[in-house]
Amino acid sequence: MAAGARGRFITFEGIEGAGKSTQLERLLRRFGGRGPEVVVTREPGGTALGERLRGLLLDPSIGTMAAETELLLIFAARAEHLRRCIEPALARGAWVFCDRFTDASFAYQGAGRGLGPNKVEVLENWLQGDLRPDLVLVFDVPARLGLERALTRGKRDRMETEDVAFFERARAAYLERARGQPHRYRVLDGSLDEDSVAAAVDAAWTNWLDETDRGAVPGNDV
Ligand code: TMP
């Protein structure tokens, strides 16, 4: 990569139980320390303050909070994450792999909570300027299946206490956003077994690299 080139920003999205975090780990293993620096992070979270805010957002004992409060807390964590982690990493040429980002706010707060996309967009434009992920991998799974999988992981967090309809709204929003910008999004069928999803991720990754600068990328020999 040319000195001073901006890194790449890749995000992993989907409702609970879609398998995004597992697939993020698997894709990372393929990088194997070759090529540019890779930063792995998550939202809400990714900084000390962001992780404290995550604790509040997911604490089931807090119960209901106003949808606006939820959105603003998430963007407070995101502002911290952008300024302290994501922007400096991209500026020094690192590749940032982020488990969820602003697409989750459109899905969960915009659609799930019913705030609509406009309020999310205002905050997105304010805090991110022109920054958008270069690639969004959306792991798609029917809400009922995703929730069943998530609940086998143990205690429900505050978001997981929502009903199937909430997660179907979130799922539909992800799919609609992906349809609107096919060059930046790839939708993967998260209902398949883990190895089949990983193979689909490899294919999507290679396809995306073919559309960007393949030579600059670790793991491009797949
Ligand atoms: P997870 O990423 O470990 O699944 O948990 C994060 C939870 O936070 C998940 O339920 C989705 C939720 N969330 C939002 O509601 N809005 C957001 O913008 C983000 C990043 C996450």
Notes on the protein architecture:
By secondary structure, the chain is α/β, with parallel strands linked by helices. It has one domain (9-213): P-loop containing nucleotide triphosphate hydrolases (Rossmann fold, 3-Layer(aba) Sandwich). 52% of the residues lie in helices and 12% in strands. It contains eight helices and five strands. It has helices spanning 20-31, 48-58, 67-91, 102-112, 117-128, 143-152, 164-180, 194-211, and strands spanning 9-13, 38-42, 95-99, 135-140, 185-189. Strands 2-3-1-4-5 form a five-stranded parallel beta sheet, with helices on both faces. The longest helix is centred in the middle third of the chain and has 25 residues, at 67-91. The protein is globular. The chain starts with 8 loop residues before the first strand and ends in an 11-residue tail after the last helix. Bound molecules: thymidine-5'-phosphate. Thymidine-5'-phosphate binds next to helix 4. The site of thymidine-5'-phosphate has 11 residues, from helix 4.
The CATH class: Alpha Beta
Coarse shape:
globular
Which structural class fits the helix and strand makeup? alpha/beta
Helix content: 40-55%
The CATH superfamily bears the name P-loop containing nucleotide triphosphate hydrolases
Query: What is the CATH fold-level name?
Result: Rossmann fold
Count the beta strands.
5
Main sheet overview: 5 strands, parallel
Strand proportion, as a percent range, falls in: 5-15%
If classified by CATH, what would the architecture be? 3-Layer(aba) Sandwich
CA-to-CA gap between the ends?
A: 19 Å
What is the averaged pLDDT score?
93
* Whole-number total of structural domains: 1
Radius of gyration, in Å, reads 17 Å
The low-confidence runs, each spanning 5 or more residues with pLDDT under 50, are: none
Side-by-side strand order of the widest sheet: 2-3-1-4-5
Specify the number of helices. Answer: 8
Reading the helices and strands in chain order gives EHEHHEHHEHHEH
The kinds of small molecule bound in this structure are:
thymidine-5'-phosphate
